[in-house]
Amino acid sequence: MAETIKLTVSRYRPEEESEPTFQTYDVPYNKEWVILDALNYVKDQLDGTLTFRWSCRMGVCGSCGMMVNGTPTLTCAVPLSDYVSSEPIRIEPLQFFPIIRDLVVDMNSFLGKLSSVKPWIIRDDEKPPVEGEYRQTPAELDVYKQFSMCINCMLCYSACPVVGLEPEFTGPAAIALAQRYNLDSRDQGAAERMAVLNEHEGMWGCTFVGECTNVCPKNVDPAGAIQLYKMASATDWFKSVLLPWGSKK
Amino acid sequence: MPFWWWLQKRVYFNFILRELTCVFVGVFAVLTLLQIQALANGPDAYAEFINRLRTPGLILFNSVGLAALLLHAVTWFKAVPTTITVRFRETRVPDHVIAGLHYVGWMVVSAVVAWFLWPS
Ligand code: SF4
Ligand code: FES
Known about the structure:
The complex is a heterodimer. Chain A is of the alpha+beta class. Chain A has helices at 35-46, 108-116, 138-144, 155-159, 161-165, 172-182, 190-197, 211-215, 222-242, and strands at 4-11, 21-28, 65-68, 71-74, 89-92, 99-101, 104-105. Chain A has a five-stranded mixed β-sheet with strand order 2-1-5-3-4. Chain A has a two-stranded antiparallel ribbon with strand order 6-7. Chain B is mainly α. Classes of the chains: A alpha+beta, B mainly alpha. Chains A and B meet through α3, α5, α8 and α9 of A and α1 and α4 of B.
């Protein structure tokens, strides 16, 4: 059994170099470790200048996403032992995002896309708080629950070739989140979101490659959400053309 | 993105294959329409059309086309449950049932078309 394992880590120090380079580190091979533990070993014991994001270490905060051997991966969720046969393990920042330093990427474009789909409950008429909450049955919750599990880790953006080809594309997680609110029985904002997403860079940018769903660590199935959205939009369009009273709004 | 991005991963390559094979779906649709037209033009025209289909070049072309069409259909039916969510008595109908119904529909339509167009 290997006693150490090699990590080849992408480094980018904008004050020193114009392009990312690779640096290799030997870390102890510990079967209990996940990839993030190995990176933390580098940071704590070998090279304090290595920069990366993490917080919860339990697949909740969504901040430790990186490319591991070319695949977008949540580094706190995959054991080192999964990669022992493919040494050295190549670790790079999430692709299709501007790199700020080492493994840290600039998330601003993603955050802008998220807020553009109005991911909150929209009501035609907001009732005063004294009238109580908007109630929902477990079956109504079940309709959208899967799409609400997203932790904004951005792995799906790094997996999507359309994001690489068309940076303006709203992208998997944001569209899935819009669908999460559309399917919520308390929400009345579907038409408002449709106006944003019924564009080429919205849902129609998706060509259904499906890799976003494969890499999602939370089984959100963003590809599914986007296709459901397209179906809803197409049905709406047919209704508005065929039935004078058919269009929802 | 490099031009060859779709060779970087098997999933990307499969996607391109699924998209490109749709050309053969179009070719088969045109071929079937021509066959129906020949059928409408009477037994002689139909026999001539069938004889033309039996030339080696067209057999080869159609064999490649059929393989591409099958690949397109199977990959598409695999993807279809993702695009359609059906709820029955508050539970989601499983993916394999939705895909299975598509296969059944495909077989039924194919049987009807074959019944009309199979040369006697
Ligand atoms: S949809 Fe999945 S992969 Fe995409 S950001 Fe959300 S949790 Fe991450
Ligand atoms: S550190 Fe929070 S998800 Fe990995």
